[in-house]
Amino acid sequence: MTRVVLASGNAGKCRELERMLAGTGVELTLQSAFAIAAAPETAPTFVENALIKARHAAAAAGWPAIADDSGLEVEALEGAPGVRSARFAGEPTDDSANNRLLLERLEGVPPSQRGARYRAVLVYLRRGDDPAPLIAEGTWSGRIAEVPRGDAGFGYDPLFELADGRTAAELPAEEKNRVSHRGQALTALRHRLAAPG
């Protein structure tokens, strides 16, 4: 069993990653178990923010670390909320407030112009000063619904509508984990972890 610190305080994200890592021999522990404060997400890209978080958690815990930086990019908002997705409506972070603000910003925007994509970047570090981080990315395309639907998931899932009309919050967890941006990134990361060298 490989014990890995998850550079996040988001319990929903931790549950999702744990389900996707089942059977891999990786055991995740939230950084809060080590009393590690969140690293400042000051970079302009998902990759840079994930690296900042992973280095911070790995150095503080003395364990390997996985960090995720992910967000929602809405075409009608020129890619916003992007790297500010969790804090779109300000601090402290609040999914409901973020969803309300997103709907306000898209008021009057027709369905054909509500295209969006989730983007996730996962970084794995063997230690805090690892010179060769493993980086994987995934994207998931959809559109922003006009009203939230569904009780599963977290973040913008109740508003993220797929081509079949369901929102991410209406998907069974197993299906979401297979097709989501985070699922794609984790699949790519698993391949990199298994690669020789």
Q: Output the CATH class name.
A: Alpha Beta
Total of helices: 5
* Biggest pleated-sheet summary: 6 strands, mixed
Question: pLDDT average, as an integer?
Answer: 93
* Global geometry: globular
Strand order of the largest sheet: 2-1-3-4-5-6
Gross CATH architecture = Alpha-Beta Complex
Instruction: List segments where confidence is low: pLDDT < 50 over at least 5 consecutive residues.
Output: none
- Per DSSP E runs of 2 or more residues, the count of β-strands stands at 6
Description of the structure:
- The chain has 197 residues and is α/β, with parallel strands linked by helices.
- The chain has one domain: Maf protein (Alpha-Beta Complex).
- Helices cover 30% and strands 22% of the residues.
- It is built from 5 helices and 6 strands.
- A 6-stranded mixed sheet has the order 2-1-3-4-5-6.
- Helix 1 links the parallel strand 1 and strand 2.
- Helix 4 packs across helix 5.
- The protein is globular.
